[in-house]
Amino acid sequence: MRADKARNREAILAAAARLFDEAADPDQISMDAVAGAAGVGKGTVFRGFGDRSGLIRALYDEYAAREFQALPENVPDLLIRVWDFKRRHRVLALALEQEGFASPYGNESYDRLHRHLADLVSRARGPRNADFLAHALLAAVRGDLVEYVREESGVDPREGLRELARSVLGRSGGDGVAGVAGRGQDPIDEVPDEGA
Question: What is the pLDDT of residues 58-109, one digit of tens each?
Fold first, then answer.
């Protein structure tokens, strides 16, 4: 029974992944469509994930767990990595954000990224407002913005994210709080230039 449940879960997530990768709009993906593509009954999908939100969160968290096993130790690289992830999985990212109030924030991957980013912010400029600033920086890589900017010519999100990080974090730590000197790698400056 347990093996069947695991196989069904795998089949459902694989089917949902294919559908989201092929879709142009999150609204095109229904529980019926996922069940049909997975070769299981709709009830099996609901029992395994609760509802559409649960399925979307499970798939998103599975992708994010693989993508973000090791997190960059500087703010621009982290933001660029999240941007690129959401660009590759654009319809899934939009689906997560459209699932209701606080949905982009109510998942394991967001919590992990936020904690790591808050630590980087704190090391760069001190702990004051680090938690909020981490949320604000992550807002710059929301799926809806990624989608909007995707169609804009002349926009360089990588360079923009680097500039945003420098603007928020500054060079000296800000507010009289000691910066990262003597505390390891600089979360701003260690950014490889990718020709962006």
Answer: 999 999 999 998 999 999 999 999 999 999 999 999 999 887 665 678 778 8
Contact of 136 with 145, CB cutoff 8 Å:
no
pLDDT tier at 118 (50, 70, 90 boundaries)? very high
Longest pairwise C-alpha distance within the chain: 61
Beta carbons within 8 Å of 93's beta carbon, 6+ residues apart = 60, 85, 86, 143, 146
Query: Whose structure tokens read 């394991």?
Result: 108
Write down the residue that tokens 């559409």 correspond to: 52
Backbone φ and ψ of 92, nearest 5°: -65, -45
| pLDDT of 4 | 86
Q: Is residue 188 a contact partner of residue 169, using CB atoms and an 8 Å limit? A: yes
The number of beta carbons lying within 10 Å of the beta carbon of residue 181 is 9
